[in-house]
Write a structure and sequence with these properties.
Layout lengths: L1 H12 L7 E6 L9 E2 L4 E2 H18 L3 E4 L9 H10 L4 E8 L9 E5 L6 H22 L3 E6 L3 H5 L4 E8 L3 H7 L2 H21 L1
Parallel strand pairs: 1-4, 1-5, 5-8, 6-7
Antiparallel strand pairs: 2-3, 6-8
The protein binds zinc ion (ZN).
Length: 204
């Protein structure tokens, strides 16, 4: 009887994530629109949230516990985002953004990590995560790789766990903006981020 009950409950038990905790940070929100493009009209805050929700879905399916810094179109300060990650003792932090440049031909995907000399272990882990996520992103989207880069962004500098900031493409580039408006393309980006995170923990 017990075995029967367990078999019945098993599909639901997997929802009770026991894996590592990953914070997914959808960039911008509320009054902070982030980058914008026209024809087609596009706001970074919407793309980042759409992507973050998909990443949560895929990481959840892989057994990870996911914490979101925002789940709606709300303004959340950078310090609040960092606090969410640090206070929950999360294992990893991934910030999702889309890029913008004055040069409309600029395109491709880049992933940032913070080079903190005071914590070389965290820096090395962040660099490794950035590299794994970027590889999966390029593989899935066929976009141009702009590489893994050092960045001094607040959310990846002040968080205590390994952290990256993904710039998933240029809203300012008409071609890439069109791709980003396609939910299927965002889905590939989200799957790639989730795959990269999963690889990071499996390679540990
Ligand atoms: Zn941004």
């Amino acid at each position: 009887m017990r075995a029967f009950l367990l078999a019945l409950l098993l599909p639901f038990l997997s929802l009770n994530a026991t894996g590592p905790t990953v914070v997914i940070d959808a960039g911008h929100g509320g009054l902070d629109l982030g980058a914008r493009g026209y024809k087609p009209y596009c706001e970074e805050k919407r793309l980042s949230l759409q992507t973050a929700k998909l990443v949560k879905k895929y990481l959840g399916q892989l057994g990870y516990h996911v914490i979101m810094t925002r789940v709606s179109d709300a303004f959340i300060s950078l310090s609040k985002r960092v606090e969410t990650a640090n206070k929950t003792g999360s294992d990893l932090f991934v910030s999702v953004h889309y890029n913008s440049s004055r040069n409309p031909t600029a395109k491709g995907i880049e992933v940032f990590f913070c080079d903190a000399k005071s914590n070389t272990l965290r820096t090395a882990s962040s660099r490794k995560l950035a590299s794994l996520v970027l590889t999966r992103l390029i593989h899935r989207t066929k976009a141009i790789s702009r590489g893994v880069k050092k960045g001094n962004f607040y959310v990846i500098r002040e968080t205590k766990m390994p952290a990256i900031l993904v710039e998933g493409g240029f809203i300012s580039n008409p071609g890439e903006r069109n791709l980003l408006k396609d939910p299927k393309y965002l889905d590939q980006i989200a799957r790639a981020i989730a795959d990269g995170v999963d690889q990071y923990f499996k390679k540990k």
